[in-house]
Amino acid sequence: MAFSKDFIWGAAAASYQVEGAWNDDGKGPNVWDVSAKYGHIRHNETAEVSADHYHRMKEDVALMKELGLKAYRFSISWARVLPNGIGEVNEKGLKFYSDLVDELIANGIEPLATIFHWDYPYALDCLGGWKNKDSSDWFLEYTKVIIDALSDRVKYWMTFNEPQCSLGCGYMVGVFAPFQKCSTPELLEMGANMFRAHGKAVKYIRENAKQKCYISMAPYGSIYCPEDDSEEAFNKAYNDSFKSEGERFPFSMSYWSDVVYLGHYPEDMVEEFGDQLPQFTDEEWAMISAPLDFYGVNIYYYKGYPSADGGYDTNWYQGRPHTALNWPVTPEAMYWVPKFMYKRYGLPVMITENGLSEHDWVCLDGKVHDSYRIDFTHRYLRELSRVADEVPVIGYMHWSVMDNYEWAEGFDERFGLIYVDYQTQERTIKDSGYWYKGVIEANGENL
Ligand code: NOJ
């Protein structure tokens, strides 16, 4: 049987994308709140209200129960809990997460918490953000507050969501808040501070959590797939997947995962950057690479090699299946990513995100007939079932539980199992939501 009896079937969302209530009850602004005011987001949309989850949390948890979810992966808004990023705690903001956790547990849903999913406090950004040498201590201060408040009930913790996007999109190519373009030495220092932040948070959780916790990061898994069944093709895909990509290292997997899970910079980065690489003391290395419990990974599609003539990449081709965001539909990624990650890092794998954007609407019969989302998820889950026979896979979180704010793309892109009408805030479970419920009930035996 591919999926274990206690396989964690769930869905995910992130604070900034669903909560709205951008300045309610004492919340401070984050870099997205501020950037949205300066024309960075499609149609100038903001997440000031978004799916209004902050005010509709109980209704939303009831819908999660209706979907049969066993887990909900959410993230905590740093500036809701600490409006200035450090210092005064906003008890009302903290209470929202405590109430959410209670509500989930009362409905039989396991809470999985992400500490940082991109909504960096604006007050700390003004102090230099990750460039500031104190930034890892700020992260620790925030972590302490939420661990002290929630770890009696929350067992699963992820430190950073897709750190590739935080650093690469936010500070290298400047397509995510705070829309900066930093130099390579700056990026290396910022990355080092993020590693220190991760390490300090893990140490605090291990020493102070009120119960045994399971900790991970949640990078995205971006790999090449072997082109045929040969060992040679496997080795080529595997080795290419873990290249750190020179100056594009913030987007690589090996930069984040080798440091955290193996305790060293990737060899090709050492060759490329030599003395430019920020150094860590032995004590810092031990903290940064302290053992974690599982390998969380977001999986959407695999990478293609660029074509020599400037045409399509190898996984993109004329007439290819692709989602509304123009991402290729490549279910095999769901087989190869866990396989590669297990081979390299040796930990059970949890799929912390997977899903697709489409431009759904409510049909005349009042339902959302998203057959493409069912087919997409069915294909990816079949591959997950195949790999779960070979490597330990402990859970799958569909992205997303409900439609929400897709960062710089605003609200055009809909990823949810639940449709949200942003004019009325009415929710409608999509066909895919009911289909997923059936998969959960059958523990994936019907895939
Ligand atoms: C990755 C991110 O973690 C999430 O916030 C985003 O909405 C989805 N992928 C889809 O782009």
Overall description:
The protein is α/β, with parallel strands linked by helices and 447 residues long. It has 16 helices and 10 strands. The protein has helices at residues 15-18, 31-35, 53-66, 78-81, 91-106, 122-125, 135-150, 163-172, 184-208, 231-241, 253-262, 267-273, 282-288, 333-345, 371-388, 431-441, and strands at residues 8-12, 71-75, 110-116, 156-161, 214-218, 295-298, 349-353, 393-399, 418-421, 426-429. The strands form 2 sheets. Strands 5-4-3-2-1-8-7-6 form an 8-stranded parallel β-sheet. Strands 9-10 form a two-stranded antiparallel sheet. Strand 9 (418-421) and strand 10 form a beta hairpin. Helix 3 (53-66) runs parallel beside helix 5, helix 7 (135-150) packs parallel to helix 9 and helix 14 packs parallel to helix 15 (371-388). The longest helix is centred in the middle third of the chain and has 25 residues, at 184-208. The chain binds 1-deoxynojirimycin. Residues 14, 17, 161-162, 298, 353, 399, 406, 415 line the site of 1-deoxynojirimycin. 1-deoxynojirimycin binds next to loops.
Bin the helical content.
25-40%
Could you tell me the mean pLDDT?
A: 97
Q: How much β-strand is present in the residues?
A: 5-15%
Write down how many β-strands occur, each being a DSSP E stretch of 2 or more residues.
10
Number of helices: 16
Summarize the topology.
Blueprint: E1 8-12, H1 15-18, H2 31-35, H3 53-66, E2 71-75, H4 78-81, H5 91-106, E3 110-116, H6 122-125, H7 135-150, E4 156-161, H8 163-172, H9 184-208, E5 214-218, H10 231-241, H11 253-262, H12 267-273, H13 282-288, E6 295-298, H14 333-345, E7 349-353, H15 371-388, E8 393-399, E9 418-421, E10 426-429, H16 431-441
Parallel strand pairs: 1-2, 1-8, 2-3, 3-4, 4-5, 6-7, 7-8
Antiparallel strand pairs: 9-10
1-deoxynojirimycin binds at residues 14, 17, 161-162, 298, 353, 399, 406, 415.
